[in-house]
Amino acid sequence: MKRLWIAAGLLVLLLAAALVNAWNIDRLTGGLLDTLEQAEALAEAADWAQAADLTRQARDRWQRSAGYLCAVLPHEDTDQIASGFETVLELLARQDSGEYASASAALMARLGLLAEMEQPTLKNIL
User: Fold this and answer.
1) Nearest Cα to 91, choosing from 63, 55, 38, 57?
2) CA 92, 56, 86 angle in degrees (round to 5)?
3) For the segment 74-117, what is each residue's pLDDT rounded down to a tens digit?
4) DSSP 3-state assignment of 91?
5) pTM for this structure?
6) How many CA atoms lie within 13 A of 86 on its CB side?
7) Longest dimension (CA), the chain
8) Which of 51, 72, 86, 116 could form a disulfide with 39 if both were Cys (CB 3.0 to 4.6 A apart)?
9) 88 and 107 in contact (C-beta within 8 Å)?
């Protein structure tokens, strides 16, 4: 009977860790998406410098969490997002509105999918 309780306790602990992880990633990506949306609005208004500053802030926030993210997410996903930030920053520096809008949308879509794939939904479990 003792083994059953230990196994049940471990299962509850793992479930709690998975839920906390999903919450952390959702909170991080939500903040990044908000910042990138603000940067996109600034770029549309031709305020390229401020848009680049906000994008750098978002990238720095992503990089500060890189150790944790690399431990809990596939490296391919984290690498794509990191390179997406660099691409977006390069396009902001060139003030290329067409390509910037496309690259920014792709980066935001990846961040959104990242948060979605960590949510404990039936789709993700099956």
Assistant:
1) 55
2) 60
3) 889 999 999 999 999 999 999 988 899 999 999 999 999 988 88
4) helix
5) 0.84
6) 7
7) 67
8) 51
9) yes
